[in-house]
Amino acid sequence: MKLRVFKPAGIANFEAYLAALRADPSLAVPERLLVDDAFSEEVPGRIEIKVKQLESRFDAAKYLYALLDCSGLEQPERNKGLWAWLSLLLFDSTCPLESSGGRKPGADARHIPEVGNFLRYYRHLLLGPYIIYRANRDAPENAMALLCQKLNRPGDVVEQLSARQQRISNRTFLAVASKFYVDSAGKQRRGAQNKTRGSALRLAKVANQFDVNWYLYAMKPDEFAHLLPKEFDKFKANSS
Amino acid sequence: MIRQINHTGRKRIARNAICITLRKVSDRLMFDATRKLGDYALPSDAHVWLEAYRQASWMQFSWGRVSEPLLPNERWLDEFDSSDGIHFRVRVTSATEAHRILAEADGIPCELPDDDSKGQSLLPIRLGDLGNEVWRLELDGDTPTLVVNRIVGDGKALARRPEFAALVYPAVVRAVFSRMLLDEDQPPEEEQEGWRGEWARFARQYLGLDEIPESRENRRLWIEDAAVAYAQKYLLAERYNEARREEEDVP
Fold it and tell me: Rounded to an integer, what is the distance from CA B233 to the centroid of its chain?
């Protein structure tokens, strides 16, 4: 299929579908919106995109980065119609059928991005991982703390860490978080998502405190890890 | 208002002490920067760092020492595919205690490349001779233009200050829409080319206003809504207060 973007009418219809899906989880996906010229239009350059089952945020980010990086699209991250269209195209990944036979779409922002709102863009299930992957494209493994989760279930770690610009743009912080909370198989470690001592949420809070006095961006990951209090020792040991 | 006490000794550098200008060279984005740190009593050997950021994208540049503002020759902002939404941050760190922050300024906006601003600005700014007026809105040219008195110093920088924006721009919004909707026979269409169409699209798409009403009285109300929506969208009063606080915090 050729890559397309939603027109305003396409976005409005997708929004209406999401609202209707909440009332009737078995409602069929409106695939017509993807190809009907009244609702969407083809992106110049005739870019081919395949419908794939994407399991993790990393899988989605890597796939979309490879697709969009060479697409010639200017500022794809600001194109609301593009990300909404991609969401509907990949709906089986972003909003899969549950065992009950229905779908649970959650908030609109998971499918239609609020591109002008930095504090909310990350909630989009495809755009959020794409932006994080792109910023860490030289060493995406350092950002696995925010990319290792299931695509349709980002969880609290992503929610808490992504909302603060100084966390997601700080490669030192992300490298330490990824070492601590992602195991060698690329899965999030148990306890990472807790709100208790040593968790990812605590790491973000401690980093916020350190930010007042220390220039974390200039530190090496080991220097930052060395500064951390004992509550993180368990994860330090796991990562070494 | 809750007052926050700064126990750390870290100094807050006013945003207007830093001036960042972007320009395009062979289609690549580059920045120039100047600073005034003389008022902050910082150690002369302290390191100064400049960061550019937008969302998860981030770049860092050394800016020499406090006493020696040396920027690297390679100041390309290749991490960013456009100038849109880039902000800057300055951090001053100790030369004697590694990574210790002595002072910082965050959320520093930048001046856009000329070609970008020409293409995008609804309200071009130029300097003029205005006697004792500080600013004036010209509505009779090709496009509404804000004229700033050249005797007030860097008039273009003044026009970007939050205090100026809060005090002046709602009046500009009222004046432009009044010209379009009350002084002229035909209200503009959003599809219309030229500044009237651009301002109509701005009202609908960025300020979220309803369609332009038919009756003259309702148009007056619509114009008031436009000024209110503009102030709300750009948080003018909040930014005004923030800028005032920053000035008061300067030691």
Answer: 14
Nearest residue of A to residue B100, measured between CA atoms? A214
Residue-level length of chain A: 240
| CA A26 to the chain's CA centroid | 26
Q: The pTM is what? A: 0.69
- The answer to whether residue A236 sits within a structural domain is yes
* Containing structural domain, residue A149: 136-240
Tell me, what amino acid is at A55?
A: E
| Chain A residue at shortest CA distance from B53 | A169
Question: Domain boundaries in chain B?
Answer: 11-113, 121-243
ipTM of predicted complex = 0.75
Q: Which of A121, A135, A212 sits opposite B8 (nearest CB)?
A: A212
Name B155's Cβ contacts closer than 8 Å, sequence gap at least 6.
B125, B127, B148, B149
Radius of gyration of chain A (CA): 19
- DSSP letter for A188, please: B
- Say how far apart CA A89 and CA A5 lie, in whole Å: 11
Distance CA A135, CA A201 (A): 21
Query: What local confidence, expressed as pLDDT, does residue B9 receive?
Result: 79
d(CA A108, CA A123): 9
In a domain, residue A199? The reply is yes
